Amino acid sequence: MRPRVPTEAKRRGRRPALEPSERRRLAARIAKMVLVDRLEQKEILQKLQSSEPNLVHIDASTVSRLYRFALDSGIVRVHIDENAPYKPSRLEHLERELMAAYGLQSALVADTTGHEEALESSLLDDRLHQALGAVCADYLDTIVRQNEIVALSSGRAVFYSCESLFNRHIFDKRNVRGVKVVSLNGNIAAEVWSMESPDARRAMDADVSGSWLARAFPDAQLIRLSLPVAVKSPEMIHDWLTEGPGRWISPKIWEERANLGMVAGNTPTAEDGEVYVPTLALVGVGGVRPKSGHRFIVGEQEPMMGNLQPELGKMIELLDKYTGSKAPFSCAVGDLCNRLFITLAARKHLPASALAELEGYVDFINERLLSIHFEQLYMVPKVLIVAGGATKIDAIHSVLEWQAMGWKQPVVHDLCTDRETAIRLLELRRTGTGRRAQ
To answer: In order of start, what are the domains of the chain with their CATH numbers?
Structure first.
């Protein structure tokens, strides 16, 4: 008969049980790595053991127990919102009409409204962007390929598209590898300059959208530009785009890489500096209107916008004078990748003196922006625009009417929008509003 071993002897050499506060801290960290970082159990073990020497003894079963503890103890909470935006169905007949009218490769029309209701409620306006993001995410899921280089602009619809794609694959990453994700413009609230409101940052920071999109793929590389939206003088643009992450949006480097790719028949190699021309761009279109949710309006007082003053403030005052419920256009100034343009409707209806003044403000702002130029989108094989709503109708229409805008070729290949926007775009096309005057 074996002698009875005292309890103290059994525990000798074992690590004492975790203190309650330490247990909760560790459980929360593991839950974050599982649900947010989406790491596998093996990766979690490696991170814990490398970052906390006192956890070198931890094993897979301990990780599982702590994760279960996080779920059971309330550290992880699930919020179910029955009023959350649903993914609307698509209207194929409008999609076909848009493709034929504007020469698009693809069109996605969500069966949801985005007009007068959205003007009365910021919540409904946000719901519209979320609905568009859900529809756009489904499409992205079918077109992103191995080694895709995806470029993103700022904007709520872009953010919700990336977030929706991540949510689709939160527990089942899509097996598409070698994806790179990069921004197309500087940010009003880049992480190197803090901003208090995370909600406002959704529309202002393309790097944040990129972080969500990158998480949808197993080994995607996120290239954070962390650039400001603008600089103090046009002369500074060259310096920002010559070195560091700014090279990713440099027109000169894009042209060099595009030419190199055409000559060599493939994409540039790492020896070329690891800067690539995107193969896919996900872009939003904004309408700059006074008292609207546009990022240039809500972020007007942010430090990063100081480089655009006082002209930005003067431009908003001018727009306030000529826009409103009785104005013959929804917006006079639109933006694509934060770069501004005067809409076709404003060119038609604004008095000559006001138009000339507005052009001066737009030119001043564009000369200081850290963003791609419209012509750079010519080099991207597929540009997908996701945008909708009453406040943007003239901006979206202007981007689609590339000839009337004076662009050499289309900058849009695919469009994701809502039902009402699609109907109005088709009406504008039928009336010939956007065609170049003969």
So the answer is: 19-72 (no CATH), 92-431 (3.40.50.1360)
